[in-house]
Amino acid sequence: MSADEDIKFKENIRQTLEITQENLRSAGVVPKERNTSFDAAKQIIQELEPIPWFVWRLSNYVLGKSGRPIKAGQGLVLGLNKLLLAAAADRVLGTADPIKTAREAHKVLRSDVIVAASIIQAVSKRLKTKNNELLWSPLLEEALTRAHVGFFVGQLNSDFSPGRGMLAGFASKVGFIILLASGGQHDAEKALGLVQEGQSMRAVCLKIYRTDPMQVSALLLSACGCGKDSSFGTMAYGSYQAAEIVTNNGTYEQQQWLAAYVLIEAAITKQLQGVDELYWKALSFGEQSDRDELAELVNIMLAKGHGWEWMS
What is the pTM of this model? Predict the structure, then answer.
């Protein structure tokens, strides 16, 4: 990418974040008193530069619009050969058959899964160039575990997709990680300590970093080309007020994002029995057998580990 193209790409991301903030504010998902914290989140995401242009191009093509993901052609996955081969060899994402070329891998993998793995890998690599890795690296493992749960949560609904589920799982933790990596060691240690003592992560981050970790995650997904539904669903998960707005007035796709967050959290904490029918049905878990299978898959994965070290 030339210098001029890089400048245009960064300006496009800046404009996307501005539009996302305005859309959320207009819908009432972001109260006026939280505009300052959203400005802080925007600045952090712009400075992070989370993904390269070729990953954004792929993501925006596949997941940039509401509804079923669009299948990506071979030309859109150029530069992702190692990731494609690793994903195709994965016991969950890929196939039991041996895959020798990126072209073969592209044929057996879902495009939304390729996008999710690409974003997770790119963001993880960017984080490792930032501060305090020793402090936040255990949380990155948790984010990958949640991404794995997200795959299971999204796999029954082709319109939502397992790839979007993976991104919801990752985003449920990565906003906090980004904040820890964005500042000094003292602030990171203080934030982690207060959260470990049982204080609200949101309240702690607003005090120390002047922003909410779910605001950071919402803007991250927006900057990564995942479409406006992702930011609405992410904000809904982080706020009771926003959840009420999305549940009552949001689009079906926004409600699916919220449902994914709810199911991932419930699966991790073994509280699936208490999940509202609204969230189950939003992601096509209408049958009890499907719900039982989800719980079993998550329990097996938690016992074995996520196995996605190659993604980080």
Answer: 0.97
Chain center to CA of 237: 12
- Encode pLDDT of 269-278 as tens digits: 999 999 999 9
Q: In the chain, what percentage of residues exceed pLDDT 90?
A: 89
pLDDT digits (tens, 9 = 90+) for 241-262: 888 999 899 999 999 999 999 9
Spatial distance between the Cα atoms of 69 and 218, rounded to a whole number of angstroms: 19
Q: How many domains does the chain have?
A: 1
Range(s) of the domain holding residue 60: 3-311
Element (H, E) at 202: helix 201-208
* Torsion over CA: 113, 220, 2, 5 (sign): positive
Distance CA 217, CA 202 (A): 12
- The DSSP secondary-structure symbol of 284 reads T
pLDDT at 33: 66
- Average pLDDT for 26-39: 82
Sole residue written with tokens 């906090």: 176
Sequence letter at residue 282: A
Q: How far apart are CA 62 and CA 224, in angstroms?
A: 11
Instruction: Please give the Cα distance from 285 to 18 (Å, whole number).
Output: 35
Domain at 188, CATH number: 1.10.3210.10
Phi, psi of 64 (to 5 degrees): -70, -20
Token pair of 185 as six digits: 């060691």
